[in-house]
Design a protein that fits this description.
11 strands; 2 domains; D-Glu_cyclase (chains A, B); Putative_hydro-lyase (chains A, B); PSTPO5379-like fold; lyase (chains A, B); four-stranded antiparallel β-sheet; UPF0317 (chains A, B); homodimer
């Protein structure tokens, strides 16, 4: 299935699953849509916090058509599932957002770690949550974010257990993808970043950490949803976790440096 | 002081100190000199174990003049201090090796982590052993080496405590210097690589690990001395620990990739 075919199936309502594992090699993105009056503050927030909020594209107001990630593709109804936020609460999870569309909406597409996971696996680094078909483990931390207007809070991180001998490789490989969270924000000790119980992630699924593995922590695209919740905006739309926008660009187009 | 001036002072006998902190920015190298009959096995050993034994140059037999690291410079008496090994034992530590020179000696110059420490400090990563003017902490591990002829054993590693937020940076920065040990061989848990007591290094000095720091382990140039000891060769010469060969090339010439 091509990204265009997947987006078409979403529009027809026949695709209603998480997008992980579909359209291998193509970029997937987190979506946040806000009324224009909050857009400048949110864009500044992303620029100040590029590891958890790597801004790939801004669309609108007045249009919902992307020009970079999938030129000409609409962001309305082409994701499998959306969340509608009213007064800082997630009130609806829906497949169809035509009824919620407003001319003043600005759409933010943010990088997603699915892109660097492909590079890790190509290098022979095993990812337990992928092998076990689970969602990645995600945790709230004490790592502070740079505030901007109503947007503030702490970073959410994803955790992947990595074999003791491949930790440096994992840092170097993901460091080549600064637009999809980049290198880890921490390696080794959950307590140092305020995680009390590594066996109880706040989002996603728990995975086992074997005795020859080290927990490695990356900035996570769930961070903006956590921040939206605290900002209590009157209205916002996001993707539903795991139900991403699939673009026409290849993950490899986001690799930096000549060391690939 | 230029590298040529330092080597001249060594020849005159007026420089008799460890070379750390001298000739900033210039490459320093470990030295191993062996009779020709062991040279092919040792060179193969280095090629098979490039992280602990990164081969920068091979000199001889029949000459002791380098052509790469310091074109035309002699390796005889230009290091501040040497060790003479007889039947696998270190019998002498001397400033003058003219009396021990043999026509069949082959000299191996191996990369040294002093080169990447400069890059770490330039990136604002603090190194406690440098700040406290101590030798770096080094440990024997259970990480096996690829054997070659009489040369075999386990890797020796150096350890530097790194702030929790800079571990990935330390991996990425040192990964650009594959000729001077490169990226860490392990991050985080001493026990996983067979180190029982992190407060008791087998070589060098102990340094404190603060509560917000992670121990990071790099392959160490002391590995070949440990291997020589086990190989029990009838004759060998090495530098004395910390008393390195100082070349005319800059550390930056050993950086790889365009990400500097």
């Amino acid at each position: 299935m091509t990204p265009a075919e997947l987006r078409k199936q979403c529009e027809k309502g026949s695709f209603d699953r998480p997008t992980a594992g579909y359209c291998d090699g193509y970029v997937q993105a987190n979506l946040v849509a806000l009324p224009e009056r909050y857009a400048a503050d949110f864009e500044a927030f992303c620029r100040k916090n590029p590891k958890p909020c790597p801004l790939l594209e801004v669309v609108g107001p007045g249009t919902s058509l992307t020009s970079r990630l999938a030129p000409g593709a609409d962001l309305i109804n082409t994701l499998p599932r959306y969340r509608i936020w009213i007064d800082g609460e997630c009130r609806h999870e829906v497949k169809e957002i035509s009824a919620f569309y407003r001319e003043d909406l600005v759409f933010f597409l943010l990088g997603c770690s699915f892109s660097f996971e492909e590079a890790l696996m190509k290098a022979g680094i095993r990812l337990r949550h992928v092998e076990q078909k689970k969602n990645v483990s995600m945790y709230r931390t004490r790592i502070p974010l740079e505030p901007s207007g109503p947007f503030r809070g702490e970073m959410v991180v994803s955790m992947r257990p990595i074999h003791w001998s491949r930790v440096a490789d994992a840092c170097i490989i993901t460091g080549r993808y600064p637009d999809v969270h980049g290198a880890p924000v921490h390696v080794g000790y959950p307590g140092m970043i305020g995680i009390r119980d590594i066996s109880k992630p706040e989002y996603g699924d728990a995975v086992e950490i074997l005795s020859d593995e080290v927990p490695v922590f990356w900035a996570c695209g769930v961070t903006p949803q956590n921040v939206l919740l605290q900002a209590k905006l009157p209205f916002a739309i996001t993707h539903a976790p795991g139900h991403m926008f699939v673009g026409d660009l290849k993950n490899e187009q986001f690799a930096r440096g000549c060391c690939r």
